[in-house]
Amino acid sequence: MLYEVTGDILLTRAAAIAHGVSPNDNFHQGLALSLREQWPALYQDFRHYCKTQKAEAGGLWAWAGADGRRIINLFTQDPPRSAGQHPGRATVQHLGHALKHLHAFVEAEKIKSLALPRLATGVGGLEWSAVQPLLKQHLGTLNIPVFVYTRYEKGVAAKEPSLT
Question: pTM score, two decimals?
């Protein structure tokens, strides 16, 4: 079940956080930067993954911290064309493929709850009106609570129904 909530996603009690990035992303802005600051090992492991595997737009890479927190990196954007450049914009096609993979991953890993921001609408550049139907299509049928953080409020824990 999808729930739209307001608050700081870093304070979620959900079992996993999903967010959008590009292959070879530098995690220098937005939620990715906050995640990098909170869990430095996430970024180090992400860099290693991108250097040793073929990360492609439309896929995902999942990470688990020592504290049990799962972070799912959805490749919603094209990679930068060369080192030091900004990644490409997100596309509806990449987002749709990544969400399809996310649905399968959540079921396979038996993740009990999921939190995500308004995917691909910040740095990715997509309109929420294009993203929201994809979330409903791909995640609305999951039998777990899915919390979509539609408005950010630093330091405020969202009211997450069914986790209270």
Answer: 0.94
CB count in 10 Å sphere of residue 151: 12
**How far is residue 91's CA from residue 108's CA, in Å, rounded to a whole number?**
26
Among candidate residues 62, 66, 130, 59, the one with its CA nearest the CA of residue 100: 59
User: Which parts of the chain fold into alpha helices (H)?
Assistant: 30-38, 40-52, 92-109, 128-139
Q: Taking 60 as the threshold, does the pLDDT of residue 9 lie above it?
A: yes
Measured distance CA(147)–CA(160) in Å, rounded: 7
Contact 144, 106 (CB under 8 A): yes
- Looking at the chain, the whole-number percentage of residues with pLDDT higher than 70 is 98
Residue type, 34: S
**Ordered domains of the chain (ranges, CATH):** 2-152 (3.40.220.10)
CA distance 85 to 80: 5
Strands 60-64 and 70-75: antiparallel
Helix (H, G, I), strand (E, B) or coil at 85: coil
